[in-house]
Every structure is written in C-alpha cells, then in structure tokens.
Amino acid sequence: MKRNTTIDVIKGTVMFNVVICHARWSEAQRLQLLFPFWVQMTIPTLMIISGYLSAKSFTKAGTHTISDALNPTHIMEIILMYLAGGWGPGTYYIPFMFQFVFYVPFIYLLIARKGAKGLALCWAGTLLYEFLQKAYGMNVECYTFIVLRYTFHIAFGCYLALHSIDTLPKMLRIGMCAFGFVSIAVLCYTAYEPMVFQPYWKNTALFPAMFIVPIAGWLIEKAHLSCKPLELFGKASFNIYLTQKFFYYGIDNLFDGHFVSNIWVQCLINIVICFAVGLIFYWIETPLTRKLLGLLKQKKPAAA
What we know:
It is a single chain. By secondary structure, the protein is mainly α. The protein has 15 helices and no strands. It has one domain (5-298). Helices cover 69% and strands 0% of the residues. The chain has helices spanning 5-21, 27-32, 42-61, 66-69, 72-83, 93-114, 116-135, 140-144, 151-162, 170-189, 206-209, 212-223, 228-235, 237-248, 263-298.
C-alpha cells in the first residue's frame, strides 16, 4: 500500500496542536486563539485517520469476517505498529487504541456491507451513547477513556477508505461542517450548558466534532500534501506524543514563570524540546520495533 504523505503531514501538524494545547494557556487565551476550532479538533481528526488506515489494512488483507480481523498474529502486528508510532498521537490515545484494535473490525464490516447507511447508523449510535452516559450519570474519568464516543469518526475514516468522499452529497458535507461550527460557537463561546454532552468534553462531543469531518475527509482524499519536515514529524508522532507526556508531567514547571514568564516563549520552548527529543526517540525505537515485527512474522504457524 503506497504511503499517503498527506496523512503524515496531518499527523505532524496536529502534533503541534497537542504540544500547544498542553501549554499553560488560560481559558480566556484558549478561546481568544480559537482553540476549539483547531487545537481541540486533534483527537477527532486522529480517530478519522485511524479508521481510514485500519480499513485500508483490512481491505489489503482481504478481511471479510470478524475472525479474520481478530486473528491473534494480526492483532499483535497492529499493536506493535501502533506502539511504534504508526497511527499517531493524542491525549488518552493509548487506552483508546487498545480498545480500537478490537472495536474497529465491527465498524469496518458494517461500513463495508452497508455503506452510507452504516455510517448513518454509527452517527445515531454515537448519539445514543451520549444519551446513555448522561442517563446513567457516567463520571468524566470513565467517559474520557472509552472509545465509543468517537464511533462516528472511526466509521467516517472507514467509509473514506472504502468509498470516495464525493459519494456523500455535497450539501450534507457542508451541513456537517456548518452544524459543527455553530455547535462549537454555542457550546464554547456562550453560557449555554449542554444537556447531554459531558461538560468537560463538550467541545469535542459528537455535534461540535462534526466540524472537522468534511475537512479531514477532503484533506486525506483530495489535498495530496507533501512537506518533508511535517512528514517526518508525522512518522515520529507517537514518539513525540510520549515525549510531551513525560515533559508535561513536571519538567515544564521549570519554565512556568521561573525562568520564562511569557507564555508564547514557553510554548516555543516546549515545542523545541518535545519535538527534538521525540525525534531522537523515534530514530532509536523504530529499528527495534521492526526487528520485533520481523521475529513475529517468522513465528507465524505454517499452513496445514
């Protein structure tokens, strides 16, 4: 399967979003800089990419049943590829993706068999999940780590891999983007409190996160982006993600007004450190993971 450089560019770009998002901006600054429209669309974007790449992989492997998709060797290869940075970063992305490995085959087969109807079912299912979590009083910690809230975005990624974005009516795509834009504006820039969505994650819930769906779809399929530095950052995205996780766990406190008081300078320092160390980590880790994958393939049982 030919590598899609646009996906690497997107992953490399959203890594800047991850590092920027975790800097010590005030809530007022986040809103003034329009974070809800770009920085906080990172995880929905990565879920679309993850669904897209999984569907491409399943199609290439000739996956037709759940047992095909959940073959133990195949699962281990996917997990190792993910841990090597194959599918991109994101907050809470590690537990998400371990759930994702076992969840995406069901989504893929639904989209493969039902097409746009399956996509609509996934949208309805995501909304139903939001109603159920509200009805049962799910706490924010539990909600945060369950991948079901991004079912529609995963399904859209699968749909994009199996069909062209042009198969969806143009007005539907424009409508999704506009509806998402208005939802972000209402939920993030007014005093309105959501009746269904988790307040802490209201800006990336189903309705607001529809804003990025047609945009990400167009970029993946139509943009044909190429930028060597961003492609490299995209390939190293998971390593950069792990680095920034460690960095923001406490090291950044050194720059929190002690040595550098300007938030813009702090953010620049954060980016330089996280990307530089993340790239070194990537260059060291990648050959080791490839050896593990090679050993795993050598141990596949011979056909009877």
